[in-house]
Write a structure and sequence with these properties.
It is built from one helix and 40 strands. It is globular. The chain has one domain: Pectate Lyase C-like (3 Solenoid), CATH 2.160.20. It has about 425 residues and is mostly beta strands.
């Protein structure tokens, strides 16, 4: 019996040993979530279920560097940052395309206590909208300098769903090769395309500012094309001056932004939005501020005039200046390269302008302007004119454009123009801005 028992034990040992050897030779499945430090893309990854494959990066603290040179982004197009508070974030060498962009997003609330530096990127979206109940997945607070600094070429950059509070300098700014050093030579490769800032909150913070200059002396630098600034909130910034500045831009689209309680401490002739070039400004609401809602310093690229448009905006309660400014300068008109613009200003509601009463406070400040102006369906109330009666609500300066003016209404009292001072519902069908 003892011999039989020993034999059984010996055979059992052999069976277990063989089974163990077979298990150790079986390839282990590789997770598609890969570390930024040593990215490994499996040759045959398990197909994701209802999610897009992504890289997970960050530890939740310290300095985070996301370098596209250490990632294989040919198949994986999403990079998720672990929730936490980072000392600073560096994003560089990420090259997406217009049809296959790269996205960097948040796995939770991502906070940064120092500048985010973005360098050498193309068609990259940095978005804090990955968590359904978190509006601003990236936050920047109490930073004395920039919140976001962009270096080098940056076409196709989208910044969205971020909040900025107490930023001491420009909030989002172009640095090296975004301005005077980057000369436009008539090609897409020498300009910056499709920069977008969307769904962000700017609270007691500085401006979005980019661009170089266009002068008839020969300089044409820092050109941006197809810029979009939309659905943002700018508030509680007593000395910001301008919340958005582009000094050489073609075909911008500024829309559905809310501005409230800014420029209490400034007396410069500010444009809350200050744009040099051509584009559209529409469906924005500005209340309790100082400066023109937009200073459009205008010129068109090429020999055919573009049409700039200002429409569906609500402007209320400025300490200085009127609703909008249109102005053309000889220095921006270059034979064979640029020309004048035509303009349309319509369906705007503008009230209580220039309460300091030291300048005209009407709907439009119109300066030297080479094209035609279509100006119609605008509604004004409680405006200010230095001398004489208010008529078409235009403050003419210099040689005015040929104007087509029709169907505009002015009332001395708010109660005759709009139903309330929250939504600014017009009392007239087809005149004034839609309620916002």
């Amino acid at each position: 019996m003892r011999k039989i028992s020993k034999m059984h034990l010996f055979l059992s040992f052999l069976i277990i040993l063989v089974a163990a050897c077979k298990k150790n030779n079986t390839p282990q499945q590789t997770n598609t979530e890969t570390s930024i430090v040593a990215p490994v893309v499996p040759t045959n990854p398990t197909p994701p279920v209802a999610v897009v494959p992504s890289y997970e990066v960050g530890t939740g603290s310290g300095n985070l560097v996301i370098d596209g040179k250490s990632l294989d982004l040919s198949a994986i197009k999403v990079i998720k940052i672990k929730a936490g508070t980072y000392k600073g974030i560096s994003i560089k060498n990420i090259q997406g395309t217009s049809d296959k962009p790269i996205t960097i997003t948040n796995s939770g609330l991502v906070a940064s206590t120092e500048t985010m530096v973005i360098e050498n990127i193309a068609y990259l979206t940095i978005s804090g909208n990955n968590i359904s109940d978190l509006t601003y997945g990236f936050t920047f607070e109490n930073i004395s300098y920039r919140a976001i600094a962009v270096n080098g070429k940056m076409s196709g950059l989208t910044i969205r769903n971020m909040s900025f509070k107490n930023i001491g300098n420009n909030t989002i700014s172009g640095e090296r090769n975004n301005g005077n050093e980057f000369a436009y030579q008539g090609t897409a490769a020498t300009r910056t395309d499709a920069l977008k800032v969307l769904y962000c909150l700017f609270d007691n913070s500085g401006a979005i500012t980019f661009g170089g200059n266009l002068y008839n002396t020969g300089e044409d630098s820092g050109l941006f094309k197809d810029v979009e600034i939309g659905n943002n909130i700018f508030q509680n910034s007593p000395g910001v001056g301008s919340v958005c500045v582009f000094t050489n831009v073609q075909d911008y689209n500024i829309h559905h932004n809310i501005v409230n309680n800014i420029n209490q401490n400034t007396n410069n002739h500010n444009g809350v939005f200050y744009m040099q070039g051509n584009g559209t400004f529409h469906d924005n609401k500005l209340t309790n501020y100082q400066g023109n809602a937009i200073r459009m310093w205008v010129y068109s690229r090429g020999s055919s005039p573009a049409t700039v448009e200002i429409y569906n905006n609500i402007c209320y309660n400025t300490r200085k200046y009127g609703g909008f400014e249109l102005q053309q300068f000889d220095r921006n008109i270059i034979s064979g390269k640029t020309t004048f613009v035509n303009a349309k200003v319509y369906n705007n509601t503008v009230g209580k302008m220039n309460t300091s009463k030291d300048w005209e406070g009407q709907i439009l400040d119109l300066y030297n302007f080479g094209g035609t102006l279509d100006y119609y369906n605008n509604l004004g109330f409680e405006l200010y004119k230095v001398q004489g009666a208010i008529t078409d609500m235009i403050n003419y300066n210099g040689n005015a454009a040929k104007s087509n003016i029709s169907n505009n209404k002015y009332y001395a009292q708010q109660s005759s123009a709009v139903a309330d001072l929250s939504k600014f519902n017009s009392l007239f069908t087809g005149i004034g801005a839609p309620a916002l």
